[in-house]
């Protein structure tokens, strides 16, 4: 059988450091490894995962009914028809088993991981785009999509669980991928979703407040991010060169350098770095700058906007240089680079106003985007923004403050309220706000309509927080919602 098509159970579980077999002998052939009872096929191995919502151990009977021939469990189970392999921790067993089943797919291509609070999606798309333009076969995994060469696949998470990840790597192998670039979220690092993935290059964008609901403190958040660097090159001893690529202007850069045992390349604007930008000119249609590199200087004339885009281009240039791409190819690709969907995305219209859809959903990214707009806006700045429910509550007042400080008028509205009361989220944003240049319109479509209706010539309307998302999560309901389409609708109307 081909890798990923099947494996003997005994051989499959050999990678587990500790297990106990209950019920029967384990001489069966495993056709697939699954963590979801609904995905089971005849011959599957079902791994029970205790989740945040439900416990996979409760689905063992369904799994067996659906064809599972063996179970990996961390709890005693009453079922007797199939072998049960009892392990201390199924979440730690999962990446080991998935890796073994798919024959360690990430050893067969260069794997690049991009982490940081903001810019992961942008930087990983730029890296992938530069590599594609040199003719490489590539894979890409992140917030918007998974891509194998030019084919796009939907994703649920920025960084998927270990099973989906290894399965995807296997598919990328089959498509001949030479380099795979992926976003690595702090959740994924903390939860071990990337255990067993053989990273060759780790890229750090920046660290600012987000996800304190999950990590508790900024120190914990930094430690989670740093795992990508401490694990870099430790998984398997492949011969590919390893690099840690670090933003020298971020105050956590020294810590990340200490954490990494691999060679380091740096980038920055304000601090001497391996790749450094200077002579930066910010225009209303793009940014241009000179980039100092170990092999001389290159000039970049880009239609991407703002200082944050300079950082993202520096990160992508440093990373692709580490992959051996010639500087001229990097320069050519950066000059042609379009913005990623929902990242500083202009909405074309015949009015004299500018409308921009952006994914800023942290205090820092909102500040950066508004500062960028301020550099070229000759009229008033209107911002429509909300905060996600079931996410870091402490970022809410900070986002509201950034909006009022840097825009002329802020309209606070709903993002994805999820299980929370939208009015309460808006309350968290505005209760202690020491500004009056804002209004609250809970319904997002009405908020966008209001902003566009009231904008006059030379004004800019920034619609922030949801970027590429084509849905809105209200309670248990997910409705169609696309900021770009709604904006276009009202630009047509008014
Ligand atoms: C909080 C969190 O991380 N949740 C993730 C988790 O879901 P969960 O723990 O609720 O899973 P669950 O529904 O309880 O299911 C437990 C187990 O039972 C199984 N099950 C369930 C039902 C059934 O009928 N049969 C069955 O076997 C499930 O397949 C699973 O194995 O496991 C799921 C599968 O891997 C993830 O999709 C899900 O991410 C959710 C969607 C999520 O929103 N996560 C966010 C917090 C997140 O991880 N975000 C980061 C990006 C952050 C950033 O911007 O940097 C990310 O990487 O996406
Ligand atoms: N280098 C950067 N520094 C600060 N802000 C940035 C940077 N790059 C992008 N941004 C802002 O952050 C938003 C999100 O960018 P992007 O999607 O690239 O980040 P991300 O890290 O992938 O986010 P997520 O954690 O949600 O996946 C952009 O829309 C922009 O407003
Ligand atoms: N990856 C981020 C995305 C936030 C996007 C924003 N629209 C929201 O829903 O809060 C998160 O899960 O926190
Ligand atoms: Mg992302």
Automatic annotation (TrEMBL):
Binding site for meso-2,6-diaminopimelate: 391, 415-418, 465, 469
Post-translational modification: Carboxylation is probably crucial for Mg(2+) binding and, consequently, for the gamma-phosphate positioning of ATP.
InterPro entries reported for this sequence: Mur-like_cat_sf, Mur_ligase_C, Mur_ligase_C_dom_sf, Mur_ligase_cen, Mur_ligase_N, MurE/MurF_N, UDP-N-AcMur-Glu-dNH2Pim_ligase
Mur ligase N-terminal catalytic domain location: 29-102
Domain Mur ligase central: 114-319
Pathway stated in the Swiss-Prot or TrEMBL entry: Cell wall biogenesis; peptidoglycan biosynthesis
Matches recorded under Gene3D superfamilies: Mur ligase, C-terminal domain, Mur-like, catalytic domain, MurE/MurF, N-terminal domain
Every Mur ligase C-terminal domain range: 342-467
A Gene Ontology term for the protein's cellular component: cytoplasm
Residues holding ATP: 116-122
E.C. code: 6.3.2.13
Keywords assigned by UniProt, alphabetized: ATP-binding, Cell cycle, Cell division, Cell shape, Cell wall biogenesis/degradation, Cytoplasm, Ligase, Magnesium, Nucleotide-binding, Peptidoglycan synthesis
Catalytic activity, reaction form: UDP-N-acetyl-alpha-D-muramoyl-L-alanyl-D-glutamate + meso-2,6-diaminopimelate + ATP = UDP-N-acetyl-alpha-D-muramoyl-L-alanyl-gamma-D-glutamyl-meso-2,6-diaminopimelate + ADP + phosphate + H(+)
Annotated GO biological process: cell division; cell wall organization; peptidoglycan biosynthetic process; regulation of cell shape
Compartment(s) of residence: Cytoplasm
Residue numbers carrying N6-carboxylysine: 225
Cofactor dependence: Mg(2+)
Residues involved in UDP-N-acetyl-alpha-D-muramoyl-L-alanyl-D-glutamate binding: 37, 157-159, 185, 193
Cell division found in the keyword field: yes
Recorded superkingdom: Bacteria
Residue ranges of the motif Meso-diaminopimelate recognition motif: 415-418
A GO term for molecular function: ATP binding
Cited function: Catalyzes the addition of meso-diaminopimelic acid to the nucleotide precursor UDP-N-acetylmuramoyl-L-alanyl-D-glutamate (UMAG) in the biosynthesis of bacterial cell-wall peptidoglycan.
Family statement: Belongs to the MurCDEF family. MurE subfamily.
Record-linked NCBIfam families: murE, PRK00139.1-2, PRK00139.1-4
Protein name: UDP-N-acetylmuramoyl-L-alanyl-D-glutamate--2,6-diaminopimelate ligase
Organism of provenance: Gracilibacillus halotolerans
Lineage: Bacteria, Bacillati, Bacillota, Bacilli, Bacillales
């Amino acid at each position: 059988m081909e890798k990923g098509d099947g494996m003997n159970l005994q051989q499959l579980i050999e990678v587990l450091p500790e297990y106990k077999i209950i019920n029967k002998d384990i001489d069966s052939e495993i056709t697939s490894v699954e963590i979801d009872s609904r995905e089971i096929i005849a011959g599957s191995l079902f791994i029970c995962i205790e989740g945040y919502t439900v416990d996979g151990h409760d689905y063992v009977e369904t799994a067996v009914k659906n064809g599972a021939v063996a179970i990996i469990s961390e709890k005693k189970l009453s079922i007797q028809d199939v072998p049960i392999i009892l392990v201390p921790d199924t979440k730690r067993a999962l990446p080991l088993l998935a890796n073994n089943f798919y024959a360690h797919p990430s050893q067969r291509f260069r794997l690049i991981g991009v982490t940081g609070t903001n810019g992961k999606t942008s930087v990983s798309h730029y890296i992938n785009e530069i590599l594609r333009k040199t003719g490489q076969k590539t894979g890409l995994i992140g917030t918007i999509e998974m891509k194998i060469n030019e084919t796009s696949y939907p994703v649920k998470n920025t960084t998927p669980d270990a099973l989906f990840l290894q399965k995807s790597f296997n598919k990328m192998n089959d498509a001949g991928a030479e380099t795979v670039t992926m976003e690595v979220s702090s959740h994924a690092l903390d939860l071990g979703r990337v255990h067993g993935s053989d990273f060759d290059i780790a890229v750090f964008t920046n660290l600012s407040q987000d996800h304190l609901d999950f990590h508790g403190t900024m120190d914990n958040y930094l430690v989670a991010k740093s795992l990508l660097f401490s694990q870099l090159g430790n998984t398997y001893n492949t011969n590919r060169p390893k690099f840690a690529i670090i933003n020298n202007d971020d105050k956590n850069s020294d810590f990340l350098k200490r954490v990494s045992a691999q060679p380091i390349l740096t980038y920055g604007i304000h601090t001497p770095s391996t790749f450094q930008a200077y002579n930066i000119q910010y225009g209303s249609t793009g940014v241009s700058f000179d980039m100092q590199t170990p092999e001389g200087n290159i000039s970049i004339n880009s239609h991407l906007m703002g200082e944050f885009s300079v950082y993202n281009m520096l990160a992508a240039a440093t990373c692709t240089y580490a992959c051996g791409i010639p500087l001229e190819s990097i320069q050519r690709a950066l000059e042609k680079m379009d913005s990623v969907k929902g990242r500083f995305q202009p909405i074309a219209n015949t009015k004299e106003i500018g409308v921009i859809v952006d994914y800023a959903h942290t205090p820092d990214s909102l500040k950066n985007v508004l500062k960028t707009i301020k550099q070229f806006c000759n009229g008033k700045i209107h911002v429509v923004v909300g905060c996600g429910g079931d996410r870091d509550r402490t970022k809410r007042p900070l986002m509201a403050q950034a909006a009022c400080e840097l825009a002329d008028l802020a309209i606070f509205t709903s993002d994805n309220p999820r299980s929370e009361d939208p009015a309460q989220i808006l309350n968290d944003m505005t209760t202690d706000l020491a500004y009056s240049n804002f209004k609250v319109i809970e319904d997002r479509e009405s908020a966008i309509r209001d902003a566009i209706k009231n904008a006059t010539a030379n004004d800019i309307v920034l619609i922030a927080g949801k970027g590429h998302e084509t849905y809105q999560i209200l309670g248990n309901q997910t409705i169609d919602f696309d900021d770009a389409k709604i904006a276009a609708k009202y630009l047509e109307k008014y």
